[in-house]
Amino acid sequence: MKITIVGGGYVGLVTGACFADAGHEVNIIEVDPAKVAMINEKKAPIFEPGLDTILSRTTEKNLRASLSYDTVSTSDLMFICVGTPPNNDGSANLTSIESASRSIGNALQNATGYPVVVVKSTVPPGTTETVVRPAVLASAHKPEDAVGFAMNPEFLREGRAIEDFRHPDRIVIGSNSPRAGDRVAEVYRSFSAPVVRTGLAAAEMIKYTSNAFLATKISFSNEIGNVCKELGIDVYEVMKGVGLDQRIGPKFLDAGAGFGGSCFPKDVSSLAVLAGRAGVDPKILRAVLEVNECQPHRLVALLEKKTGNLSGRRIAVLGLAFKDNTDDVRDSRAIPVIKELLEKGARVVAFDPMAAPNMQKIFPAIGYAGSAGEALMGADGCLVMTEWPEFGRIDKEFDLMAHRIVIEGRRILSWKGAEGICW
Ligand code: UGA
Fold this sequence. Notes:
By secondary structure, this protein is an alpha/beta fold. The protein is built from 15 helices and 14 strands. Helix 4 runs parallel beside helix 5 and helix 8 packs parallel to helix 11. It binds uridine-5'-diphosphate-glucuronic acid. Uridine-5'-diphosphate-glucuronic acid (UGA) binds next to helix 8.
């Protein structure tokens, strides 16, 4: 199939590369010329395990990137994969969605056949029908049924996006007509996952609800973990026993410093705003966010309890990315932790295998070490913020620490001297 992807960010690029790898003809439209050049040179502008390998085996016919909407008029499917960042009130900003829709519409003016516009970006229910559809049709000067509309949410985890794309738990296709939905189903024909066909708004809601539910599992585990900590119980033992109940499931029950990243905090906030606008008080969603905001403070409070006044103390922060296998620091739990440490007068030395350059843009004045061992050298205390597997293998460095106050915000260390935030 001929596919156009609007937006060469992490979702658009992974989606485009995987479709190209499956033999489709893909064009990625991206506003950043530097990204366009990199994609055309078969280099990934973001770090995502496996992506470079896929890019390197695509041909120019399979995958190319451009600044223009030239290929839209001959495409079978156009996926909108642009960002929906939060507004100040927590709602989703749809500016890029609207402008992508208008640009697609303009490019469709001379199109023949039945083009289908698919929203993959995470958007509030109603967006495809009331924002995307009118913008495309008005700019295309087309009658209502000349263009199909679908909503096909992504469930890709950063750091594991290729695997998630290829082996999804389910494929959700919302559409405004069976014909549009069938076209999207066709591109996923070789996948073995169950396909859920819905209307447009239900598909949009499935994405928000999935992320909100996963975030709820994490905040719930964190709250139980906080109780366990006070009672001297290991929350990981508890959740192992709880998660084996098939009605609950073992995943996303890892207690710790809370969830970060570009999705959970933003999507839960946006859903809460949406609930409020619909006249529903989002009590659970508010609590999910509140628990999440408290975890970093609990971590610093625990450290302070052990070290005493943090003023002038050297504190090593291991892990800056919002999770392992990525250089992304958006909403990383390390940010509020470092901020509070600095407010309390601590000297922060940070280390991350990948994310230090990105964190440097937020905290240019703290120390950055070239290794975990260097960060720990002379440290009065250490906070572990990201579940990088390599942190589980640095017992020797911890043994060398003079005071050995090590607190984990993620359960990753095998070193027995560490204490966990919830265990
Ligand atoms: C999340 C979802 O998992 C994807 O399905 C979704 O497509 C994506 O958002 C999105 O909306 O684009 P992602 O944000 O990349 O993916 O990362 P996750 O692996 O879900 O982790 C999010 C945060 O939760 C991380 O900070 C992680 O450390 C934390 N987490 C995760 C926990 O604290 N405990 C857990 O048990 C699991």
